[in-house]
């Protein structure tokens, strides 16, 4: 530890695992955005809350910024450490601490993977229903810090809905114990909800109590081929009316081309412009057939398959969940937007028109949680285009998006957060008065500005 600030930290906490190994700095200094060169000062791996508090107090004294670090699967640069920050990894705080069958709560440390939380719930005959493709790598602390959404929001809501209590270390090193698992607690500002979605800028989640729920009855998974954009939301309205939906996800022919080139099985002999994967309670099997027949009669759906085994259901889901990975090698420029559900068709049509007029050479891949009005738009870099030109053209794409979203009263970030990537556009979704209040809140929780500075605000 040649840096005197690190020597001081090592002296204060002789048992703390602290690394300046170049491999660790590289690995823990970045998230899935891959846009910034990682350059943290060091990576700390605290083992308990007391160590987290001591690290934060040391940081407040020395002025070293902290980047809280979970699974770093984020797509907005929220967990990037590119300016000599201390990465505070929660990897070692990854245990289930308690289960209460009466409250139906699971208390966990923040570094536990989402998939392990889901498994712990299943082992106790219940479910933790927030779910998305990064489940194996992302951590619950990061899910809370970003209010993660995913593929079952339509049924269960975002992470926010499942957080019964939170322990948080603020920017002064103070430990807050928020809400303590209460269902009802009308005692003023709910600070728990301020922390959820704050992207590590207010404090570090060091323990979470999560609500669990009963598993749904058996579900069925269906893949539909859809011939035109305006049919998409008609199919959604019909499905939502007739079925008890668990998920309603869409992707385009471009997305399917990438995911099948990456190893997934092509589902239909013919190609179609749009596809929907939907999952719903199996109890409504007859309704599912009625729904399908109606959609076909109306010409909204031209082909479909219903999974007849768990393996087939998994294969259909892979078509949707494998998209991000299948695009990764193109270093896509990602956008994650939302509009009201009813506005989706008008917004998509307008945006498609603008993009094909201005950037006909771009491979633009649309997919996402269309039943929540949440669309992912990935722009892939053409091989023959210089990286700088690509980035500046993509920033222009984002400006087009921002204008179009503004007209349609949407948001520039639906579920991926603001981080570094969308920071220039925060003002397009939040008023000056809101941003002033947000800055005031940040200053109250983190007066030395050491908690993930430069992200979000
Ligand atoms: C998803 O819905 C994730 O699969 C990732 O939010 C989206 O890669 C993306 O743009
Ligand atoms: Zn998503």
From TrEMBL:
Keywords: FAD, Flavoprotein, Oxidoreductase. SUPFAM superfamilies: FAD-binding/transporter-associated domain-like (SSF56176), FAD-linked oxidases, C-terminal domain (SSF55103). Its cofactor is FAD. GO terms for biological process: respiratory electron transport chain. It comes from the Bacteria. InterPro entries: FAD-bd_oxidored_4_C, FAD-bd_PCMH, FAD-bd_PCMH-like_sf, FAD-bd_PCMH_sub1, FAD-bd_PCMH_sub2, FAD-linked_Oxase-like_C, FAD-oxidored/transferase_4, Oxid_FAD_bind_N. Pfam families: FAD-oxidase_C (PF02913), FAD_binding_4 (PF01565). Residues 36-215 form the FAD-binding PCMH-type domain. GO terms for molecular function: FAD binding; oxidoreductase activity. Belongs to the FAD-binding oxidoreductase/transferase type 4 family. This is FAD-binding oxidoreductase. It comes from Luteibacter anthropi.
């Amino acid at each position: 530890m040649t840096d005197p600030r690190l020597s001081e930290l090592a002296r204060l906490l002789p048992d703390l695992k602290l690394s300046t190994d170049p491999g660790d700095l590289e690995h823990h200094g970045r998230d899935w955005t891959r846009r910034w060169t990682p350059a943290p000062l060091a990576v700390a791996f605290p083992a308990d809350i007391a160590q987290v508090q001591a690290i934060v107090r040391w940081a407040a004294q020395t002025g070293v910024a902290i980047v809280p670090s979970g699974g770093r699967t984020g797509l907005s640069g929220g967990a990037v450490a590119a300016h000599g920050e201390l990465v505070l990894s929660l990897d070692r705080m990854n245990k289930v601490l308690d289960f209460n069958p009466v409250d139906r709560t699971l208390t966990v440390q923040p570094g536990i993977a989402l998939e392990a939380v889901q498994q712990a719930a299943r082992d106790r005959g219940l479910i933790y229903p927030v779910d998305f493709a990064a489940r194996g790598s992302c951590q619950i602390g990061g899910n809370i810090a970003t209010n993660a959404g995913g593929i079952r929001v339509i049924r269960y809501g975002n992470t926010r809905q499942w957080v019964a209590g939170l322990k948080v270390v603020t920017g002064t090193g103070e430990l807050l114990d928020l809400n303590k698992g209460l269902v009802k607690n009308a005692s003023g500002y709910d600070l728990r909800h301020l922390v959820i979605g704050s992207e590590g800028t207010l404090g570090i989640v060091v323990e979470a109590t999560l609500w669990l729920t009963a598993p749904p009855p058996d579900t069925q998974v269906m893949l539909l081929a859809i011939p035109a954009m305006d049919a998409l939301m008609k199919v959604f309205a019909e499905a939502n009316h007739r079925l008890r939906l668990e998920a309603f996800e869409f992707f385009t022919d471009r997305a399917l081309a990438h995911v099948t080139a990456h190893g997934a099985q092509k589902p239909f002999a013919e190609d179609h412009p749009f596809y929907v994967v939907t999952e719903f309670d199996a109890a409504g099997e007859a309704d599912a057939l009625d729904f399908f027949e109606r959609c076909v009669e109306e010409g909204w759906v031209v082909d479909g398959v219903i999974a007849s085994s768990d393996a087939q259901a998994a294969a259909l889901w892979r078509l949707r969940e494998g998209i991000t990975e299948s695009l990764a090698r193109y270093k896509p420029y990602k956008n994650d937007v939302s509009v009201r559900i009813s506005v989706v068709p008008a917004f998509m049509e307008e945006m498609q028109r603008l993009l094909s007029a201005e950037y006909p050479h771009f491979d633009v891949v649309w997919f996402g949680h269309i039943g929540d009005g949440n669309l992912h738009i990935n722009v892939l870099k053409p091989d023959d285009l210089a990286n700088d030109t690509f980035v500046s053209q993509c920033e222009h794409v984002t400006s087009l998006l921002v204008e179009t979203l503004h007209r349609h009263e949407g948001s520039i970030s639906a579920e991926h957060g603001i981080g570094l990537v969308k920071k220039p556009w925060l003002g397009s979704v939040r008023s000056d008065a809101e941003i002033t209040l947000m800055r005031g809140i940040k200053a109250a929780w983190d007066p030395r500005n050491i908690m993930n500075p430069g992200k979000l605000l």
